[in-house]
Amino acid sequence: MIKKKIFATMMVGIVMSSLFMGCSGGKDKSVSGKAGKELTIWTKLPELEVPVLEEAAKKWGDETGNKVKVVRDDGDYKAFLQAANSSQGPDIYFGSPHNQLAAYEEAGLVTEVAEKYVKEDEYINKGVWDAVTVNGKKYAMPISIETTALYYNKDLVKEVPKTMDELLKMASAKGEGSFQFNINDPYTNLGFLLTNGGYVFAQKDGKYDINDIGINNAGSVKGLQTLQNLVVKEKFMPLDITLDIAVTNFKEGKSMFYISGPWDIQQLKDSKVNFGIAEIPSIDGKPYKALSGIQCGFVSTKSKSQDEAWECLSYLTKETQQGLYEKGKTPVFKSMMDKQEVKDNENVTAFLNASKNSEPMPNIKAMDAVWEPMKNVQRILQGEDPQKVADEILSGIKKGIELQN
């Protein structure tokens, strides 16, 4: 009788344990029979690209028995800082600009990439990993590389200009509005400053010196003068032009040339405009030096499922390469670049070539103090003295850095 009671008690315990395991956290069961985890991903990918991520996330979830929710984030990086600190943020952030990592690292919100996921030999170059490195540690996984290049209308341009002088001559022949881009966007217009010898922060021994800012040196001022000429002298575009206006005019065949990044490829394809992409022409014999960025993914320190989050992110960076490439992204994996369809893709080749001469956005917190003062470029487009405004931009950057400390 005693043995029967013990056996009965054991059976009840086993049954009850099974019930509790099955209800644990309300999660789905994985293929191994264990309760799955629920992961949330925030993404900055454009709306056209989000379905690629959603499909890959669902595939990983189905294969592992976990659930993944993808949410498009329209807020700025400060919104993520706030949300993450209140435990309302995501487990994974997919598609973040690499230059925001420093601020996240300082706030203690990003975890270091485990060594097993750092496979540099699988990527197009070491530089994409350098971009996601802060204080010698890697905090994110590269997803794609992007910079700016020259879009041109093949029906209006018979030979792609190699120099900026050639471009301006061709555009002038057609008249006002023939060369347009979002000239008020610092990410775009900084390239004119960098090409002429300007710089944001000087680099010494592999580190940025925030006390040495070249935004108002002779090269930067020359670049600002070039931007002013495009609006005031050549009258190619109004000083208050926006991205939407510029891309619409290019789609409708009103402009011959347009500067932008790979994010515009899909909508231009949909518009049926006959376009090509080339490197932005050289200026005074110097290769155009655009700013470049690495879109990356990282895991929040606030995630309660660190192992699963890193496993998921590692899977997604590879699984989304083909889909994002088809939407216009420039891949970072060698396996993608080795595909014949990619080798034959003139658009991807153009952006890859442009990225070789580009300068990665400084991955330091001080860079956040640059964007607001750079909005003063519009004053230059209104005819104000470039040197005077450049000096004020420098002053604004320095004040912004002081406020960060």
TrEMBL record:
Main subcellular localisation: membrane
SUPFAM superfamilies: Periplasmic binding protein-like II (SSF53850)
Keyword rRNA-binding: no
Family matches, as Pfam families: SBP_bac_8 (PF13416)
GO biological process terms held by the UniProt record: maltodextrin transmembrane transport; maltose transport
InterPro entries, alphabetized: Maltose/Cyclodextrin-bd, SBP, SBP_1_CS
Keywords (A to Z) from UniProt: Cell membrane, Lipoprotein, Membrane, Signal, Sugar transport, Transport
Compartments in which it is found: Cell membrane
Single Gene Ontology MF annotation: carbohydrate transmembrane transporter activity
One GO cellular component term: ATP-binding cassette (ABC) transporter complex, substrate-binding subunit-containing
Secretion signal span: 1-21
Topology in membrane: Lipid-anchor
Family from the record: Belongs to the bacterial solute-binding protein 1 family.
Protein name stated in the entry: Maltodextrin-binding protein
